[in-house]
Amino acid sequence: MKYAGIDIGSRTVKLVVLENGELVFSRKSITSHNPLETARELMNGAAFDVITATGYGRHLLKGHLGCPVISEITAFALGSRFFSNDCASILDIGGQDTKAIALDNDGLMNKFEMNDKCAAGTGRFLEVMATALGFTLEEFSHAALGARKAVKINSMCTVFAESEVISLTSQGALRDEVALGIHKAIASRSAGLLKKVAPPGMVFFAGGVALNECVKVLLEKEMARPVFVPPDPQIVGAIGAALSAMKEA
Amino acid sequence: MADYTKMWSELGLDLEGHDALLSVLGGAYTDIFLSQKNRPEGMKYFDFVMSEVHGLRIQELMDAKAQGRKVIGSYCVFVPEELILAVDGVSVGLCAGAEFNFEGAETLLPRNTCSLIKSAFGFKLGKVCPYLEASDVVVGENTCDGKKKSYEMLAPLVKDLYVMDMPQMKSAAGKALLKEEYRRFVAKLEEVSGKKITVDSLKKAVEVVNAKRKAVKRLAELRAADPSPISGLDALLVNQVFFYDDPIRFTDSVHKLCDELEERVKQGAGVSAKGTTRLIVSGCPMAVPNWKLPMLIESSDVVIVGEESCVGERGTRWLTEFKGGTVEEIIDSITERYFNIDCAIFTPNPSRVEYVKEMTEKLKAQGVIHYSLQFCQPYIMESSPVEKELEKSGMPVLRLETDYSQEDAGQLKTRIEAFVERLKKK
Question: pTM of the predicted model, to two decimals?
Fold first, then answer.
């Protein structure tokens, strides 16, 4: 049997297929104005027997395929166990929201917290800030890691922070140091959310922002505990959905 | 619905805005309530009340006014309906449940004011609430800071704003203050109505209101059955209509509904399958037409079996017990009754969480959703200790903070579904 999981996120759609407990297929695509169409294109050519959907677009797909759905939060809890058995909590920073999830001893989701309804401190925030500083996302993280000190960023609102960054650079602030300030702001906000629920122990870091080495390093400092980033942190939710499809089958 | 245009114009409503409001309200009602499966027949009465909420009921208020009775509007469960009925007045809860004319409200109020207060102002400035326009006296009460200060701005906008002070602690001094305020309110009611409160009129009023509360308490108890005989949305609606309808007719209709529900319980029939996840909602009041959260919850394969809220058990669970026969003694009994209300404006407020625990046991709930309106400081502050206390006793809690807008529906849905998945894995 081939079990597929699809995670229709706000910025990217992820599709994976599991067979005999192995990841045999994985594909991502940028979410368009028509997430259903994006999901269809992604599924085109992928071979699977059953599929479960997660992510903010899950109900859209359910309406068309009649497939089962699970929330992203449960999907991340399940998916994290595919990569690691010894994490006590999960931090997922996606395109427009941040989730902190506490796991129980069996690796099941126990408590969770999510950010408020705006995109403060999420992947989208990082993208806008990188653009404001004239960096690609890779350069952005690299520049921050190389900075000697951080310029403090006060606003976490994507719109206000952009003006703040522009005003700082026009006052002569070094852009690497501003970059570090932005990364610190994200790390401390995410750690705040995580501290509300996370039991002691290793943190599993997932979502697109986990690809950013600087956020990971800062998070380890803030949390004073190890942070584990899986090989492909963006597909954790999709893998969780596929594992759920397997459980239900 | 008959043509009420003339009545609405005479009340000074803005007809265009009012039409727009009614059409949104009607659409939402059809989508949220009429689309539910296995609804009790007895809900037809409440459907009718809702379809005529700005029509026939307002006509009744106008008829009462023509007979010289006074209409007293209020925003809070601390305003005793008994006292209003004792001067042959009509008590109505005022509209504060929709995101209407918030731009207008924000010309007077800070943006970070809760939706309930903004809604009251939006309705007033937009001239779309016939209850408010029909009220001879509008009663404000010094509960939270937002309401307290906003009444200063509401006063020049309405005919007669009467402000009632409120204690903040459950002390002897607090109770004395509440009693004194109720006495002062009696004087106000006697003055506007030109009628004296007598032992007979007050006793009768207490009996009418007690009967009304007993009816909704009966409804609340029937929801302990699995499967629940009624949806949380429908039960909430009954609790919302509680504030608008004629009290005697309302009481009869709730009992008729309960007779039917009792029959359902006997037959093991319910609104959803036996074993459906059962939740309690605790926190801020949900005024008509604030149905967003219960709709999101119940469309997630859940049945809500109780509301620990002003529009729910916090407003109805106590009855007035007669301890003596004079007007003074009955006012004492009324004060005793209202002083029990465990609103988050009180500090400390330990009985509230204790009662939520009791409700989860009585109603066999598997979890609690704590609902706070954004910027409602008392309930948001209390949400964290309530959550900790309940989780400590093994009761899972999901804390949600939202307002009247629809923009966060997707995020709320994700949280609710994840919470339900957490409960199901147990």
Answer: 0.93
